[in-house]
Amino acid sequence: MITTNKLKQKYIDFFKSKGHAVIEQASLIPENDNTVLFTTAGMHPLIPFLLGQPHPLGKRLVDCQLCVRTTDIDKVGDEVHFSLFEMLGNWSLGDYFKKESIAYSYEFLTSKQWLNLDKSRIAVTVFSGNKDIAKDTSSIDCWLEQGLPIERIAGLEENWWGPAGDCGPCGPDTEVFYWKENSKPVPKLFDPNDKGWVEIWNNVLMEYNKTKDGRFEQLKQKNIDTGLGVERVVMVLNCLDDVFKVEKIKEIYDFIKGLAKDKENERAIKIVTDHLRASVFILADPRAVVPSNTDQGYVLRRFIRRAIRFGRLVGIEGSFCQLVGKKIIELYKEEYPQLEEKKRFVLLELEKEENKFSTALANGLKEFNRISENSRGLSGKDTFLLYQSYGFPIEMIEEIAGERGITIDIDGFRDEEKRHQETSRAGAEQKFKGGLAEHTQITKRYHTATHILNQALRNILSSDIKQKGSNITSERLRFDFNFDRKLNESEIKDIEDEVNRVISLGLPVTRQSMKLEDALKQGAQAEFGSKYPDIVFVYSVGDYSKEICMGPHVENTSELGHFRIVKEESIASGRRRIKAVLEYE
Ligand code: SER
Question: Domain 4-242 maps to which CATH number in 3.40.50.880, 3.30.365.10, 3.40.50.150, 3.30.930.10?
Fold first, then answer.
């Protein structure tokens, strides 16, 4: 058995041997990127660097990143999909390009020294072209050069990655597939739609920038962004045909099966396994959210509630989320110590959500039956009742209706929802429509404003103040710090004035790369509890502030606009939170 850990180690070692530096896992909840609710790929934490900002560790990076993808939620239950999975990635930030990237991938997968996968079971797809961009024939040449036969190379129009918003860096990709069926011979011709083929690796060849007016221009810095699905590769390495048979996932699956009465409904047991695993990792994340009706909290709520519904479907009675949660924590705590550290919180939140929903689910299903008994469809009002009074996520109502062959009046539901002033449900992962470039510009401003605020708090309130958390969206900054009382109005005014004074001074923002210990010696601010690499960037705002930070930042404080604090509140004992905006006339 080749274990998950062994695979990860091999991957990191391989890319280290090719000059790549290892970067830390980022949070599942993106820190300064609100184009998405969750980190859906290793590229999200790296966006500023893909757009050209230098990375302190250089141009070749390698990492392992946990990802959450709600777009695949309906596929969970088959043999290859999860909502939470681990992705190994190697990155070239304007360094090597497709020829080397393809060669590295093929070497790692097939060489005896590394994974030694059977070459005859490998196939690839490349971008087949569209009205804007021609077919990616050079990738075909690169694969042929590696020795892949032409009948194992297929062209697809969908082999295109990004951009996350309407514009930004993007490019064709080339995906590697593996024939996972052990009992069936490998088909002569490669058909990517045949479910026997599983995609294991995606190499994104990021060479274009999509402009606001929809044109594609060549990027100055061509990047490589690859993602290798850890669980899928462990599956094929061990000649398995289902990711739910892989190691720890199988143990969770078997544990849930043990609780179930109907042990034959594999799909339902897989859904419970997947959703509770995702929920535990989201709750244990350093930037954890709790179940709610908005954004990430809503997705988390959907995972837990859907797990409960499918748990009931296979006859699991009584509370079970905590039990499964404990099992998941036990299995993963060595590798992900945050699970043990946050254990109480994770289990408590699972329990609270389960208590809230269990009774409502039973009553709601009765109501569902009653309403739908004599009709082929649910009205907007009925749908809203199930949503509002019984806490059924709308997707769940749609799903149950679909199972019973009845329709729901979704427009009527939306009207009802508006009438009840329900706000900001996260229907899609895509949140910011302005495009990456614009988004990055706004983020930069808030990022620099955060540094100034951090220093202003120390100057005005107390030199002991430390940053305890920060979050930036395109609408505001949020800053958490240690302080034991409410700020009064005149203090808030003083802080605003100080930040605006620094803005109006037009100070340059500069970056230096240095060893972490030197940065700390120089008195650069660091966020308590954050992990930093050995080499870091230190950003200075004139002589006013100095902080360890990955960026990105504006070049001069004069770009920031007018700073205004909109809220100051307590978030825990000895912890305060400020929300502030930058305004332009
Ligand atoms: N961003 C690409 C993906 O998610 C490769 O990492 O597939």
Answer: 3.30.930.10
Which two structure tokens, joined as six digits, stand for 120?
């005859």
pLDDT at 36: 79
Cα of 216 vs centre of ligand 1, distance in Å, is: 20
- 13 token code pair: 């070692």
Closest residue CA from atom 3 of ligand 1: 227
> What number does the ligand 1 atom closest to the CA of 42 have?
6
**What average pLDDT score do residues 101-130 get?**
97
Cβ atoms of 557 and 509 within 8 Å: the answer is: yes
Residue 282 to residue 68: CA distance in whole angstroms: 9
* 0.70 surpassed by pTM: yes
Which structure tokens are listed for 129?
């072209």
* Atom in ligand 1 nearest the alpha carbon of residue 67: 4
Whole-number average pLDDT of the chain: 91
Residue among 23, 71, 127, 173 to mutate when testing ligand 1 (max atoms within 8 A of CB) = 173
Asked whether the CA dihedral 34, 35, 38, 43 is positive or negative, the reply is negative
Q: Give the domain ranges of the chain.
A: 4-242, 247-428, 436-583
Kindly report, residue by residue over 536-546, the tens digit of the pLDDT.
889 999 999 99
From the CA of 318, how far away is ligand 1's center (Å)?
39
Please state which architecture CATH assigns to domain 436-583.
2-Layer Sandwich (3.30)
Q: What is the pLDDT of residues 67-80, one digit of tens each?
A: 999 888 889 999 99
393 lines ligand 1 (CB under 6 A): no
Ligand 1 in reach of 64 Cβ (< 6 A): no
